[in-house]
Amino acid sequence: MSKVLKIAIPGLVLFLLALASLLPLRTATEIFGPAGFGYQRVEGTVWHGMFHYPRLGRQEARSLAVSLSPAGLLTGTAVADFRLTGEHVSGSGTLSLSGSTTQLRDAGIDLNLDRRAGDMRFRGTLYLSIDRLALTDKGCEQIDGLFRTDILGPLKSMGLWSAAEATGDLACNDGRINIAMTDGEGEGAESRRLSFSFDPLQMRLDTDISVKTVSAELVNKLTRAGFRKRNDRWVWHHQERIG
């Protein structure tokens, strides 16, 4: 390669990056934005911009700030820091896209949940601390992180759970992101399970509660709350699309 080319190529790359930095975020979103993504107003460029009242499907937040990293573009990877604020979801982290793989790193996500099971209402927060999440066209491929939640109050007040809060590891299972909590004596006479299972491809969230008990009083409460008998356990299931 000639000395002229060695000098010209880096200069050309920098020139193209400079042009890219002037591309309005609105234009970039119209070209590259995911299906179902919308907003009320947008400002700034791809280098640093802000969506006001962004929405994906039926889920809406107050604002989404994004800052694109120029270093990632040199390796063919789009890397952006983001900060999301809203009534039901907020958080921040680093998102990268390379080929068919999307990764989320160093992220903290707060979800405000409100679920009903008969006369029980599960209302509280679910916090996700994600070191790394890898999504492909098959769904969740790998996740490293922890969760913390305080939505177990109704189960605790019924005598079904020993505490109103729980923590644990995040996991991938069959392409889904899984959050599972257990309480009681494992598979003994008294045991409880609660799980959230999120399908990132279908944007579907499943909530499952399973209780094993020999208490007639608790069985009556579970029946009134809408639980159904399945083998030796009482179960409740709720499914919803969130996008």
UniProtKB/TrEMBL annotation:
InterPro entries: T2SS_protein-GspN. The keyword Transcription regulation does not apply. Keywords: Cell inner membrane, Cell membrane, Membrane, Protein transport, Transmembrane, Transport. It is found in: Cell inner membrane. Its main location: membrane. The keyword Ribosomal protein does not apply. It comes from the Bacteria. Pfam families: T2SSN (PF01203). GO terms for biological process: protein secretion by the type II secretion system. GO terms for cellular component: plasma membrane; type II protein secretion system complex. Belongs to the GSP N family. This is Type II secretion system protein N.
